[in-house]
Amino acid sequence: MQQQLILKPAMAQLTSTKLAFNVPDVDGLFPGFKAGDFAAILGSEAVTSLMSRLCVQAQLPRNLGGLETKVVFIDSANSSSLSNILEAAKLHQLEQQALDENVVHMRAYTAYRLTSLIMEELREIVESSDAKLVVVSDIVAPFLSDNVDDQEAKAVYSQIVSYLATFAKKRKIIIIATFLPHEGNRRTNTLREITTVKANTVLRFTKTPYTSEVELEKHPSYMLGFTEYTPEIKKLTDYAAASFSSLLTFIP
Predict the structure, then answer these.
(1) Which of 131, 183, 233, 245 is deepest in the core (most CB within 10 A)?
(2) In the 8-state DSSP scheme, what is residue 223?
(3) Is the residue at 226 inside a domain?
(4) Is 248 within a domain?
(5) Which CATH number characterizes residue 207's domain?
(6) Quick one: which of 23, 51, 54 has its CA closest to 138?
(7) Which residues of the chain form beta strands (DSSP E)?
C-alpha cells in the first residue's frame, strides 16, 4: 500500500519559499529556486549528483529546507537513475523507502518519447501527484541523435522548452532541466542557446584541475556573478536518522 509523506501539525506553520542546493558558498550566490522558476543547469556530470540530492531535499519538511512535496524525475537518455536519488538519501541517513515512494520516475530515451511525455503527459502527472518539483535530467540528449533531422530537432526542442517555462509559471512549480556538455555534437550550441533564452534562471557549474566554480548567468531578481566553491555538500539535516523519522508521519 502506498504511503504519503506529511508533516505533523506542529510543523504546518513553518514555511519556505526557496529550494536551495545546500552547498557552502553556492547558497550565498544563489539562495534557491522559487515557485514558477524554469531553470537550466549547465555543467558536467557533477550536476547530475546535485540534482539527485535536490530531489531528496525537496521532500523534506520546510523547516529543514524542503518543500514537503513529491518529485517528478525524468531521465533523458539514461543520464541518471532512481539509484542516484536513493544513494543521496542513504548518504544523508534518511529513510530510503519513504523517499522512494515520493519520486515519480520516468525514462525517455528518444526525442519522440521525451516530447510526448512533456507535451501530453506531464500536466496530468504533476496534477495527480501534486508535485512541486520537476527535474528533466540532460534534456538535450535525445535531440542530438542523427536520427532526428536538424530543423525538426530545433523546432521541437524549442517547443518543449517553451512549454516547460510556461507550465512552471502557470502551475507555480519549480522545473529544472540539466544540460550536460556534449561538446562533440554540432547541435549542442544551438540547443543550449534555446534553453538559456527560454529559462528564467541559468546556472553554470564548471570544474578545472584547481577549482570548482558556479556562475549565475541569468535570473529575474538575484545579482548575477560567480563564485568558487568546495564541492562539499552539507548534511540535509543535522538530525540523526531516528530524529528525522520522528519529524514525519506516514499514513496509508
Answers:
(1) 131
(2) P
(3) yes
(4) no
(5) 3.40.50.300
(6) 51
(7) 4-7, 18-19, 33-34, 38-42, 71-76, 103-108, 133-137, 174-179, 201-207, 212-218, 225-228, 248-251
Predicted confidence at residue 4, as pLDDT, reads 40
93 vs 185, higher pLDDT:
185
- What would the grid cell of residue 104 be? 515519480
> Which residue carries 557549474 as its cell?
205
In the chain, how many H helices and how many E strands? 9, 12
* 134 has a pLDDT exceeding 50: yes
Across all residues in the chain, what is the average pLDDT? 83
Domains held by the chain: number: 1
- Under the phi-then-psi rule, with left for phi > 0, alpha for psi from -120 to 50, and beta for the rest, what region is 182? left
Comparing 201 with 88, the larger pLDDT belongs to 201
46 contact partners, CB below 8 Å, separation of at least 6: 205, 207, 212, 231
Decide if 64 contacts 96 (C-beta within 8 A).
no
Is pTM, for the whole model, over 0.90? no
Range of the domain at 122: 35-243
For the record, the C-alpha cell of 127 comes out as 496534477
